[in-house]
Amino acid sequence: MRVRRIAIVAAASCFAAIATAQARDERTAAVGMRAHIEQIVLPGGELVAAPAERAAPVVLRVLATWPHGDRFRYDLEWVGLEVGRHDLAKYLARKDGSAVEGVGPIEVAVTGVLKKGRLEPGELEPVAPRRLDGYRTDQIVFGALWLCGLLAILFVGRKRRRRQAPPTPAPTLVDRLRPLVESVAAGRADDAAKAELERLLVACWRSRLGLRDVKADAAISAIRAHGEAGALLRQVEAWLHMPSPPAAIDLEKLLAPYRTLSGTDLEPVAGREGALVR
User: Are strands 71-80 and 58-68 parallel, antiparallel or unpaired?
Assistant: First the structure.
């Protein structure tokens, strides 16, 4: 296990080095053209783009954020709308609303498309074509992949793992509630099934709403009044106590809040809540 972690860390370091080497750092751009500053590390809490103002000379976006020790690393995209030098740090804000302090200037330059005094563009200057081979970058990428493959062969491939059948997923609370709700709605439920349904609902929401230490009557009233918690409980009470309960219901919507809860998580709680069922 330790050797495998070393292999994973080594592979991650290789890819991080490649990403850093290829990061863009575009501090100069023409008016209206997008530019990027990638993998820049800034101190303090997490930063986001400040709300844009209509007259702002620069539009700034935070494309991606990663933790970097006690700091954060960012990919920024900016567009200059006025010619001149600008500080991108003025267009950042803390995500938690605190003051932006300790962030040094991130100076960029916005250039005009036309030279001063010109009314129409001049002839474009010839520019040498970029290299298309990319041989050095390919060497770095293939070298990193080869190293990762070698480490996997040396330290991971030698140990064969026995294939195990995936464990059977634990039943959710919906799996327990659905047959009870359907039987109560159809009028087929006996007294034990009705009590079990009410006990599960009360136990579930006393646990999730922090009402375990509240008296039974007050807890049930709070659950019944709650928007999400009370929907199914009120419907069950209508089926059990109203002479003509509503027939058209959306069962899937009523059961939606219980899909992520395990059917066994509330067993001890449900046992204690038996006294709450009226």
Answer: antiparallel
Strand partners, 83: none
Q: Classify each residue of 114-143 as buried b or exposed e, where b means 16 or more C-beta atoms within 10 Å of its C-beta.
A: eeeeeeeeeeeeeeeeeeeeeeeeeeeeee
* 185, 249 contact by CB (below 8 A): yes
Residue pair 72/47 in contact by the 8 Å Cβ criterion: yes
Q: What is the mean pLDDT of residues 50-63?
A: 91
Radius of gyration of the chain (CA): 31
Q: What is the pLDDT averaged over residues 237-249?
A: 66
CB 3 within 8 A of CB 152: no
Task: Tell me the pLDDT band of 227, cut-offs 50, 70 and 90.
Answer: confident
> What are the boundaries of each domain within the chain?
2-114+135-143, 173-276
Residue 192, pLDDT > 90, answer no
Dihedral angle over CA of 12, 16, 22, 23, nearest 10: 140
The three-state secondary structure class of 226 is: coil
Q: What is the pTM of this model?
A: 0.38
Residue 48: is its pLDDT beyond 70?
yes
Provide the sign of the torsion angle of the four alpha carbons 19, 21, 22, 28, taken in this order. positive
Distances (CA, A) of 228 to 155, 181, 187, 201, 264: 51, 17, 24, 12, 21
What does the pLDDT look like over 96-128, one tens digit per residue? 989 888 898 999 999 986 656 655 555 666 766
